[in-house]
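@channel anyone free to eyeball this complex?
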Amino acid sequence: METSCKSLLKGIMEVKLKVKRFDPEKPKDNIWYQDYNIDIHPSSTILDALINIREEVDGTLGLRCACRASICGSCGMKVNGQAKLVCKTRVEEIAPKGEILLIEPMGNHTVIRDLIVDLDTFFAKIEQITPYLQPDSEPETGEFIVSNESMDKLLTEMNCIMCGLCVSECTVLEVDKTFIGPAALAKASRFVYDPRDDQTDQRLNYLNDEQGGIWDCTRCLQCVEVCPKGVSPMDRIMDLRESAIEIGAKKTHGYHHTNSFEKSVTANGRLDETRLAIESAGIFNISRLIDLIPVGLKALIRGKLPPLFPHKAEDNKKIQELAKKIKEDK
Amino acid sequence: MKFAFYPGCVARGGTPELLSSSLAVLEKLEIEVEELTKAGCTGAGVLQEKNPLLGDTINVRTLAMAEEKSLPIMTLCSTCQGVLSQANHKVKKDKDYLKKINELLKEEGYEYKGTTDVKHLLWILVEDYGLDKLKDHFIKKLSGLSFAPFYGCYMVRPSEALGFDEKPERQMYLEKIIESVGATAIEFPGKFSCCGFPVLFINQTNSLKMVSNHTGSAKDLGADAMVTPCPLCHLNLDGYQGKARKNNRGDKADLPIIHMPQMIALAMGIETKEIGLGRHIVSTEEVVNKI
Amino acid sequence: MYDHDLLIVGAGLAGLRCAVEAQRMGLKVAVITKVHPVRSHSNAAQGGINAPLTDRGDDWKGHALDTIKGSDYLADQDAVEIMSQEAGDAVLELERMGVIFSRGEDGKLGTRRFGGQKVARTFFVGAITGSALLHVLYEQSLKLGLQVYEEWFVTSLINEDGVVKGVVALDLKTGELEAISAKAVVIAAGGAGRVFEPSTNALICTGDGLSLAWNNGAGLMDMEMIQYHPTTLARTGILMSEAARGEGAYLFNSEGDRFMEKYAPDYMELASRDVVSRAEQTEINEGRGIDGNVLLDLRHLGKDFIESRLGYLQEVSVEFLGIDMSEKPVPIRPGMHYIMGGIKTDVNGETGVPGLYAAGECANVSVHGANRLGANSLLDTVVFGRRSASKASEYVKTVKDSKILTNEHVEKDLNRIKKILNNKGKLRTSEIRNTMATAMTEGIGVFRDQKSMEYAKKIVEESKIKYRDSLVVENKGKVYNTDLLFALELGYMIDCAESIVHGALTRKESRGAHFRTDIKDRNDKEWLKHTLIYRDRSGEIKIETPDVTITQWKPVARVY
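replying in thread with the prediction:
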């Protein structure tokens, strides 16, 4: 029987923070970095440190926080350039040797003051994907009958606490504000895969078609890396892509791209880049094809154009057989 | 030192200069490589969108091939590194899934037991070969040059599949190797960002904005060139820089994009023809002349 | 013209359930909340929601009796009867709205056991039931197009001739004060955990609603009933759901004994929370604890089970203490968690003050009496949230348009705020609050006596004076001034603390969570009563002791 536990109140740790401040009421010089040096318990979280500053050093420091237990989603902010939920990020983890912690507000959001950002656009994107159950009819009494497995599977998406970290780091949102975004798309998948919802195809078609929909994700993995709840928004987007293809949603460039990739890898074991470029554009899409010519020519001149007869993996028939077997098993 | 060699599709296709410069460097360092000629494309994450099982199966097959030879795999591409590592991580965590895949591979005679290590040439140079030993081969100093590091998403995410828990310093290797050749590694905020290649054929506007942002800001910070360990990033940052910069910043493509092994080769004084710097769309003349 | 028919203060489960109901009934509704709805503290509830489903072999009377016994017979039995009877419909309706409840083999809702009940009738979503319910209600509010004053802080109720006609509130983003008029106001602003230190409650649980109601003629009932949850994580105080024990976890002391055998041989770890907390505290006080904790052991449940049914708990344990629950036991201790006490209401949310209703944790119907059963709070919020909407909508039809002196009301609060901002004191909000909250936990703890309670009272009085005279607020700005916000919240907390100490000193017996080491026995003869505290405009405290409503269950000795 484990009867000893680390004595939890021993020790003091010095923490150095550099916080990006913003005061909209100052007429000029309203953005600055402020240094704070404090002493706290060694197992403290970054939020503990910020609250300490707010309570004992500088009452003007503005930040949102509530539960301190990683369930309310309020305390998202950038720590050393990466978005984190500071109530569950221990100082020791990020600054084991007492390095300075750079604290900034979340990215891709307008800053209201200090570390407090405007989440109106965040929640507007959530609203965009019709975030409520849409059954064709409800049982009069009692519940919908569904399997535990199907409800358990949705736990991943349901774990989302709408903290905004994924949106903060999304590389697509950085360049394109019309992208629906990882949080809203993950939320959308929660309804697409809920057996009680009867708008599955409509939802998938919308997400497939929409400018800024599922095919705009660059698969950069930022949202997967920063999500504090294991929602893995990118993987949810990939699920949606697979499902959109399955229901025969409109063939977008994204679909052609993925399809072409699968075809060339299955046939040759290797990627045929030229074919990929052409088929992604769409073989009948003259304007897109013409678009490819300048780069293609440059590549040809430099000797970079992939060979006309694509290189194959040795014994690529084996890969063809694997693909066939997997298709049959489905 | 011997490795199972997995150059990836693009090293043979759109960026042959990556393959030639890598092989030249490996020869000089006497690192032996045996190519896995039967291995298939990793799928780059794209295949996995439509057919995740096929993607994982092809990758586990590659891992099994190397395991048979008791060799770790060397990759030349951030994307290959990432996707192979993810597949490796997945089957190590989920034994039932591994079993399912091994069932599919049985016919060909492969069975993956989960012991293969996958390492990018960048990691191999720092961890296995050692930067001090590497420096002994440098005959040209690239001091005075500033390079912006650009890792490529799949080399730095997801951290749990890439071994960052045990080796967090892997997130600094590119800067370290830039410094080892005597150049300055610029504090480049976009170093872990996305180059936009995955959506090049899908949403070109966004893809080009990313290229413009990264090459433009690197240039503004004083970079002479950008160094990247990923040929897919290279294709986008180099091939489309002209259009990207014109559309978004109204300026020209003026930042050469150099493959990481090319930089090593330059420092080693290897023949420029082998390095293939002439193949780049954005001219590398200026930066080469500075050496 | 009134801005709204119904204005609901608080967007947690009770507030949103009330709003959704009122919206469905065609009322012009709005919710006003100081945080975004999904940040409400309802999301911290973990274990589940109780409901006796009579068509599946359960009996509502069984749940009612468990609740009443759990309350140590202080609950008003007519209210409990209603809650138990309406529970089934309330929970099934939540499922139809889209909650991803766990299922049994037959695809119908699945259950787990919970404290104080032998029958498994707790419906759940992993260990995130509160969050799952809150998010679905938020979705429904979006579906219905509910108007939300998001991040607006209520500074006072508009009260004219004893009738509540709206609120004055501070828009946190701009710092502007505005009057919002409504024919009726429902207070659903949650509990007041921050009056204690430590507490499982979020930083936002500052008893705003309790104070607002109290200062406008409503009574605060049984405020001495403070629930200390038995399993809060060592050092951090984070809640570790009762669900762990419901799914079979054991409690051990430093000698390796499953000590609940001594205190509750029948229910063991699933005795009512006050019994378990007292047991743990006794073990700790008598030297059988480990650094002030005892151990919660889940190892025998297995890793897969823990991760699927209690995933959030594992996450917390690993992230905050570095302990994998499938490999090591977790150190826990009792922690302040919930206030059974609150704004006195009837079974329809009526407070007795015209135009003012209350529901949720801030209200006291009373269904929880002297101790709340786990998984009954979520039930309380949805049942009485809905009922108050129903009742308020009837009232609203009778209200005629009238002119409200909005400028005066806003002016009053503006002056109050100016005074706070200009005060040249030396004490920060946090200093005053920390001193008071620590004293409250010491004085009104798991165990208390006359001396400790009087000590707490003394500190509260001192805090009142410090607040009035010595408070300093550093930030004088308008945009999102959290410094000012905390100062205003402190005022509310002090009111709550005051009502708590008065209630505690009034009740001269031990019952449920109010355990006096100087008067250890329950005294039904003299104390089968509630404590009810009023405060008039001049600040005079008036205490009444109304009888508990007994219907079919005669109070007997409470043994687990």
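from a first look: The longest strand of chain C covers residues 176-187.
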